[in-house]
Amino acid sequence: MLKEKLFSKEKIxxxxxxxxxxxxxxxxxxxxxxxxxxxxxxxxxxxxxxxSQIKTHQKYGGVIPEIAAREHLESINVVIDEAFKQxxxxxxxxxxxxxxxxxTVGPGLVGCLLVGLNAAKTxxxxxxxxxxxxxHLNAHLCGNYIDTSLKPPFMALLVSGGHTQIIDxxxxxxxxxxxxxxxxxxxxAYDKVARLIGLPYPGGPRLDKLAQExxxxxxxxPEAKVEGFNFSFSGLKTAVLRLVKSFNEGExxxxxxxxxxxxxxxxxxxxxxKKALKQSGYNQVVIAGGVAANSEIRKKIFNLEKxxxxxxxxxxxxxxxxxxxxxxxxxxxxxxxxxxxxxxFSRVK
Length: 349
Ligand code: KG4
Ligand code: ZN
Prior knowledge:
The chain is built from eleven helices and twelve strands. It has two domains: 11-146 and 320-332, Nucleotidyltransferase, domain 5, CATH 3.30.420.40; 154-314, 2-Layer Sandwich (Nucleotidyltransferase, domain 5). The relative contact order is 0.18. By secondary structure, it is of the alpha/beta class. The strands form three sheets. It has a five-stranded mixed beta sheet with strand order 5-4-3-6-7, with helices on both faces. A five-stranded mixed beta sheet has the order 10-9-8-11-12, sandwiched between helices. Strands 1-2 form a two-stranded antiparallel sheet. Bound molecules: 5'-O-[(R)-(carboxyoxy)(hydroxy)phosphoryl]adenosine and zinc ion. Residues 31, 160-162, 187, 190-191, 202-205, 208, 289-291, 293-294, 320-321 line the site of 5'-O-[(R)-(carboxyoxy)(hydroxy)phosphoryl]adenosine.
């Protein structure tokens, strides 16, 4: 794909067809991680830095947007400096060797996105390189290209704090959303249920840990019956609330509740994904997004290998928010924003 250098207006070829090594530096700041990475040819990470704000937001039980934006401002220069340092040490790559600079445009928290996106645009201007704006959800999918030889077409299950989608990825830039949640996203359901049973933020990973100590069949929780490839998780959340209320304080079988909830969620996701896979005829399937770090969801989806499918899931560090996936997306996905005046957006358009 042809991309324009910002000052000189010279057009250069970027991406798999370019015929030379591309080094893309990307910045991600859509929620509570300030991240910067440099990736060679969309697959080889030569620098990867993530500054997490978890400790800050723990006090409040969730992400406070204004505080998150301020923390991004404090960390952004630090993560960029560190990424340049790692690139020099790991691959002798200097700032001028960067082919293009990329940044997450949305969806996410507007104040947070602005910090990272403006930094990426500024770097592109300073070094007179193309700027590439990236959609955060596409970036999560591209986490699967890192360190693998995965090529479309494949079926994808994208599960994060804000989204739950089954996506038919036909080519690097052509995708169709087959279904999505009609209410809560999976990560949101995890975080809400975690709060219900008194677990601190971030609830998802903690719930996952406790679930591994419990009995998944202790309580039968309802799998929502939703048409087609869509999902619904708000009924399940209410069912857990009712269950929690049926116990006296101090007698809550926390591990069994976590485990039964996890069993229900993972079955729901697996059933719909399998249906989509069968319909498509694809033999490759990927999971992506923060909830793809979940032990039971990974286990059930990797079990599809026994049925002859090839299963891909990013390693944990590329499941939750990071900038390497953004750089990979800028390289592979032609469906990006090239205009340096592109504005951030909070929701999927
Ligand atoms: O993709 P991500 O880092 O941010 C968004 O773009 O939303 O996903 C964050 C979500 C949170 O809801 C978090 O609780 C959930 O992913 N999460 C998990 C696990 N690790 C992260 N949920 C369940 N099990 C996990 N192991
Ligand atoms: Zn994310």
